[in-house]
Amino acid sequence: MRSSTKKIGYIGFALLAIIILFALVGPLVIPYDSSEQTGESFEAPSAAHWLGTNDIGQDILAELADGARTSLFIGLVTAILATSIGAFIGITAGYMGGLFETLAMRTIDIVLTLPFLPLMIVVAVYMGQSTWTAIFVITLVMWAGKARQIRAQTLTIKSLGPVQAAKAMGANHPYIFKKHILPGVFPLLIPQFVAAVNAAILLESSLSFLGLGNPLMKSWGSILYYANNRSAFLTDSWAWWIVPPGVCIVAVVLAFSFIGYYLEEKVNPRLSSYTVRKRTMKKERILPRQDDGNILSLEDVTIAYHHKEAVKNVSFTVEKGKVLGIVGESGSGKTTLATAINAQLSGSAAILSGAIYFNGENMASYSEEKIRSMHGREIGYIAQAAMNALNPVVKIKDQLKEAMTEHYKMSPVEINTRIVEVLHQVGLASRWQNAYPHELSGGMKQRVVIAIGIINKPQFVIADEPTTGLDVMVQVEIIELLQQLQQELQMSMIFISHDLPAVLRITDELIIMKYGYIVDRGPSNRIAKYSQHPYTRRLVDAIPTLPKPLLEEVLK
Amino acid sequence: MLEITTIEKSYGKEVQVLKNVSFSLAPSEIIGLIGASGAGKSTIGRILANLEVADKGSILFENQQLIKMSAKKRRQLSKDIQMIFQDPYSALSSRMTVKELIEEALLILKIESSKMARLTLIKEALKLVSLDPDHYLGRYPHELSGGERQRVGVARAIVCNPKLIVADEPTSMLDTSLRLELIALLKSLNEKKGTAFIFITHDIALTQNFCQRLLVLNEGQIVEQGSTEDIILHPKHDFTKKLLSALRKLEAREEVYL
């Protein structure tokens, strides 16, 4: 977690502690009853009345302390009610599905559209203005939003592996509920609860300020209501009559917001990020190098994630028009390397030493602007389609269009021509341009991802696990397609995979990585056969092969 | 032991994933379900593991009809039919230790009420999958490699001593060098404990030396079945030939590494 988030969290907790202390201790130590006249009207702050008095001579500090009790009481009770009702309905709807879910979701939709204030006025007419009316109405409008979010979370957990596994082991519903759904949803409930307290306190203050609260109970909103009615703004009394309750409301809202922000990041570690201080490169390192005819060369590159080195002292070159394969198992650093070459290392990763030269220029000297304009135009990136490389709600043609128009100004006719052309190149009929990704099979999606990678005719392409997650037949199609495109378009390419057979088929040179190091390298047509490196041998031996006779069988 | 007759399964009105599928399985037999993605092979596995319900047909497991069996009785049968999942990264809850993960199967199925007896079973299961219990019991999934996680998945499936294990592409998320190791592990379990396996995969090459019989599934139908050797050496159906020639092409530079 970032230290700034922690600080914000601590400030929130401290603020809340002060407010709670004030609510608990205040009414006990302040020597006045807030509902009785204990001084003159409109007394300015003095030693006797620290915050002065109101129009009927009641002590404002005593009013504030009572108001703190009211606010916290209504906030907590409402939040408990709204969160538990929301959780119950959300979890049940998400877990059970079916008719209950449909009914619950439609009800939630209706409740979410209810206008809060008119509802409050109508209900107050029937139930009378009381604290419980306020609690009832605030709960009524608040549970629905909670229920909706909690249902979404439940649906996610329900579809996850552990729940499926438990079912396959024969678990009944109560077990799955207790062991998997509740523990999964619970972390989400805490920030939801805090946000609910916050919203409830704010709503209660607004209600009281509008005169819809319980007239017999002091609350910060009602103090403001009376101050406003007695035209406190026209006299000096606003300074002690309006500012203090205002400050209290702001303080409590801030406290809960800070705590909520802190908890949210705590239960959702993805929101937090680490930063690595990037070592400044020595100046002579950044100087452009003489062009040696290679499209890409890496010199002694070391890359670290969270201070852990993921790529260690890696050097290699890619000749123009050639294909280099990088093979390694998960964790070998190959994807980190590809990300670095594509100049897309995120905040937590950095090149610690060494240099990457693209067309003879050191990429460390590139501006962000230059890097942006390079992406897709000079360096094409083909990701693994199975890993959500496509936006599910955007039509294929619009995703292709976006990849082009980021770089070029083109007329609609030119764009359409190019889209049809590139789809044809990757073997897709032009009618697919109007489809959404979910309408395509895995292989077709991978073809679209390839189309996006080559649409701007880059001279260099990085293909990162383009065959992973596809079945054997589709794998072959994709490899053949890449091979054919590479030759037609004279592209240089890096092909990354953990699948040695796939890589051997398409590459000219091969490097084999393990634990961030290059452990073996050589021409693809020799390395698998002649390499004596034990790790290479292990990878080669692990390739299951079909018995020989099949070859003749298939060829005849 | 298992006799599946003409089962069908559709999602919605239009998508029929299984058409008229019938096959049988003898005790301790290992069969491979082969097919492209979307062929319906995982659906068969999920039906056997009680994660889906077949629309029609009959599934006899040791002379008990699984279709139309009461939910409670069907759940209890999970003791005899366990499943190994494709993705070792998501099938194990990140909140539980290896011990708790394996114990979960015992608790759910109410096998062994004493803690000590359960621990003995858990340790035995870990030893069977070649993980040292002392070293692994207290670890969390994120501290394990992909191969180790899949072994925990296997340990969890065998701890209740099932008669049949459905392994749904258990190797596809593993690195190449770990695939054959896992297959070897499953084979050793078959030899030691007599567990029958249904091995679901799109990679025929992996079924050699493991599956005794293969069923080739295409678009929800079994198009060919026979001994593993027969299917690999003398495929009859066009689809099987296509599948094999695809594999062949991947190995086209086979001379390079043999």
From TrEMBL, chain B:
The lineage of its organism: Bacteria, Bacillati, Bacillota, Bacilli, Bacillales. Keywords: ATP-binding, Nucleotide-binding, Transport. This is ABC transporter ATP-binding protein. SUPFAM superfamilies: P-loop containing nucleoside triphosphate hydrolases. GO terms for biological process: transmembrane transport. Residues 2-244 form the ABC transporter domain. It holds the Pfam family ABC_tran. CDD domains: ABC_NikE_OppD_transporters. The keyword Iron does not apply. One of its GO terms (molecular function) is ATP binding. PANTHER family: TRANSPORT ATP-BINDING PROTEIN (PTHR43776). Coiled coil: none annotated.
